[in-house]
Automatic annotation (TrEMBL):
Record InterPro entries: ATP-dep_DNA_ligase, DNA_ligase_ATP-dep_C, DNA_ligase_ATP-dep_cent, LigD_ligase_dom, NA-bd_OB-fold
UniProt-recorded name of the protein: DNA ligase (ATP)
Pfam families (alphabetical): DNA_ligase_A_C (PF04679), DNA_ligase_A_M (PF01068)
Origin superkingdom: Bacteria
Lineage of origin: Bacteria, Pseudomonadati, Pseudomonadota, Alphaproteobacteria, Hyphomicrobiales
GO molecular function, one term: ligase activity
């Protein structure tokens, strides 16, 4: 059992839910000289494939699924760069993370992780993270955010993407301090039994867990090497219009949503809950500025207003209907336009 110097993470609350990591070791300064690999400007991230059940077996390791912004931290001799999943430089938006990364004492490295804001129970809160950044299009810097690092892609001149995850994790545990209160923290491997892990995660209010194949290299895209198993499903969808309502707040009854299939948009249904009157009013005003007479999805209706595909919404839902629509959808908030890479790919639908 780790001893926490802050309110414990949910998965540390019970004696049956311990999280363990290997002891921190100093890297061997006398290791043989190896050829240096040029540090890449960017590595396309490995993405988790959505699955309904937890894979079982010694080939898999499990981590908490953090609900935040995926970031790559590029540590160089004289600078630190923070790159979003879509390839944008957000160093200026996360200065505390950049400062903490610089203090790790590494010459060159690329950390893969998730920026989050935690609630008082140690759970990641996407809404709080959005507020810390000033909302969609906001210019605020996030001083509350921390980074949970879960992979190491480059270290001291060596490209690690071709090595198996178990080796990369072994090195990551050496370079990220075992501090539970730091701004850069290690995303711990969970040692609960796989059969009960998801149930416990759901009971304590986590979004879900990530399962990763120990023996695989780091491969970009949704290869199936990483899986996400969610308590409540949450994905990003493009808002392609709205349905007008005379009785609903702000005159906005529901948002029309679409996922991506190649270069096309596929309608996945609408969402009419999760936003308050002020949010509805702001959404309607923004969508009215994006109004178009050429909808990107084949819908018709007198009360439907179509918009250019620009706004990206994070949506919670309980599954899919047989005709490909979201079940029990609820609006969580808007993502930045730079997150267009995060829009749900219909090929990933289970």
């Amino acid at each position: 059992m780790l001893r926490a110097r802050r309110p414990p993470l949910p998965l540390l609350d019970e004696s049956t839910s311990s999280v363990q990591s290997r002891p921190i070791r100093k890297r061997d300064a006398n290791q043989p000289s190896l050829p240096f690999d040029e540090m890449p400007a960017r590595i396309e991230p490995c993405l988790a494939l959505l699955k309904p059940t937890v894979p079982v077996g010694p080939d898999w390791l499990y981590e908490v699924k953090w609900d935040g912004y995926r970031l790559a931290i590029h540590i160089e001799p004289k600078s630190v760069r923070i790159i979003t999943r879509g390839g944008h430089d957000w160093t200026h938006r996360f200065p505390a993370i950049a400062d903490a990364a610089e203090k790790l004492g590494l010459t060159t490295a690329i950390l893969d992780g998730e920026a989050v804001v935690l609630d008082d129970q140690g759970r990641s809160d996407f809404g709080a993270l959005q507020r810390s950044l000033g909302g969609r299009g906001g210019k605020r810097i996030s001083t509350e955010s921390i980074l949970y690092a879960f992979d190491l892609l480059y270290l001291d001149g060596h490209d690690l993407t071709r090595t198996e995850l178990s080796v990369r994790r072994h090195l990551l545990e050496d370079v990220v301090p075992a501090e539970e209160a730091g701004t850069v923290r290690l995303s711990e491997e969970l040692t609960l039994d796989a059969d009960s892990l998801l149930e416990h995660a759901c009971q304590i209010g986590l979004e879900g867990i990530i399962a990763k194949h120990r023996d695989r290299p780091y491969r970009s895209g949704r290869t199936g090497d990483w899986l996400k198993i969610k308590c409540v499903q949450s994905e990003s969808f493009m808002i392609v219009g709205y349905e007008q309502s005379e009785s609903a707040r702000g005159g906005l009854g529901s948002l029309l949503l679409a996922g991506r299939r190649g270069y096309d948009w596929v309608y996945v249904g609408s969402v009419g809950t999760g936003f308050n009157g002020r949010q509805a009013d702001d959404l309607k005003k923004t969508l009215d500025r994006l109004k178009t007479t050429k909808p990107v999805v084949p819908l018709k209706g007198k009360r439907l207003v179509f918009a250019q595909p620009t706004l990206i919404a994070e949506i919670e839902f309980r599954g899919w209907t047989r005709d490909g629509s979201l079940r029990h959808a609820s609006y969580k908030g808007l993502r930045e336009i730079q997150d267009n890479a995060a829009v749900f790919d219909m090929a990933a639908k289970p």
